[in-house]
Amino acid sequence: MAPEQFAAEAVTAAADVWSFGGIIYYVITGRHPFSDKPNIPAVYGALALKQPPLLPMTDAQRSAIPKGLESVLRSCYAIEPTDRPTARTLSAQLQRLIETFKG
Prior knowledge:
Blueprint: H1 3-6, H2 13-29, H3 40-48, H4 59-63, H5 69-76, H6 87-102
């Protein structure tokens, strides 16, 4: 759930970008974002303090992530909705990452 939803603010397409970040997070880590938090109030507290979920990884695990994907994830988890990429921008960023694998 995007921070603006917790705060009962207007929900826009930026909330979908946040949720997409959650999917990327799960694919990378095999864990849900904020899985280190014991309950919903703890998640809300982290968001109120403007602390997005972090990738809990060692340097070796981080090196296995395609270059650029971590920054895409971080952009999806911008606390302020206006700081997140649009779906179109996100799509372009991911397409550029895919192109790097094609050689």
